[in-house]
Input
Amino acid sequence: MEGIIAVAIDNLTSPMVLFFALGFFGALARVDLALPQPVAKTIALYLMIAIGFKGGVGMTESGAGLGALAPIAVGIAVSAALPFLGYYLLRVGSRLGSTDAAAVAAHYGSISIVTFLTAVQVLQDRGDGGEGVLVAVAAAMEAPAIVAGLWLAARAMKASAAANGASKGEASGLSMREAVLNGSIIALLGAFAIGWLTGPEGMADVKPFFSDPFKGVLCLFLLDMGAVAGRGLVQNRKALDIGTVLFGLYMPLIGATVMAVAIWPLDLSIAGKVLMMVLAASASYIAVPAAMRLALPQANPAIYVTLSLGVTFPFNVVIGIPLYVAVAEWFF
Amino acid sequence: MQTHSKTRIDIVIESAAVPRLARLLDTEQSVHGYTVLPVHGGSGEHGLWTRDGLVSEADGMMMVMCILDTQHKDAVLSRVYAFVKDRAGIITLSEVEVVRPTRF
Output
């Protein structure tokens, strides 16, 4: 318990969480601290390239071989499985219809790269930022949940049409390009590959730009994320019933637990296992919302975006990450 | 200067759906081109929003504008409507005058 409290205090007083809180509470007070959209996009690209590059360099330094594939395989399996669990929990515990439940569930099988970045920085400050392969795991876990969520939605729509005789439309498919090849994944994996190829010599060349300012840039981005999360919650809170809000708080814990069990036998550091848990606990609010808008327009974006960004993201940043660190140090 | 009557179709639609709508218009022989404009903000069913308060461009709206021969508007409109009807979006039609009719 003392360990959890110590980690929680460290996290709550870190610049990253404080800047997030500034943006969040500013938005609740109707003060606009959001960055212009092109600036936010540039910063997001910088962060993904920086963490991808660093992960690739880490792979060179650790001499990782085929054994590095195990976390990726486990990540894909958990990403594909969590939407089924999430869908069932939402149908039982909230007022969401089947289409909205499928869309929300897909978000919780996928990952939040910003939550991952924040966790990496927290762990770095504690002395170990985790293995480089975790970046590849993050990229691999983006898409399987989208496929699972769309399958759930298509099945639900068919069942509804058969029962009621009226069709609400169909879940249209996604091409491989639309589901998998989005800018975030390409930036992450591309930088990862470049870091792996260039190794420590490459890192020495770019360290003043991609490594030294990273934490400060992350603080700026979290200020923006806090503002966006707060604004979304203010505008769309009525779209969420209490059961859905609770889902946004307990599903991360369930995801982290499922992943903790799945990675038990893997040869990863404590920090690496924490990052795997963070990935399973996080919910997408960039890639999956875009996919849902395309393939499942019948689902309400106000529900899935507000839940993942306004409820789960703040929960993970403020409470989740220190909790997963403390639990991992105790459990493993 | 002599001008010629055409029909303008404006489609305000989610940014994430624009590439698919563009491919649909590309397959229409009567549509020789279109213009995509960013939408700064608005207010609708889900309240007020602006581009600066969005996590990604996929969350925003864009406007796709095309000008075509009035005789083809019903055929194009039916295909566009079939695409837009399940999504957040607006379709409007207006009569416009153009200077170079061969372009449309």
Q: What stands out?
A: The first helix of chain A runs from residue 2 to 12. Chain A touches chain B through 29 residues (CB under 8 Å).
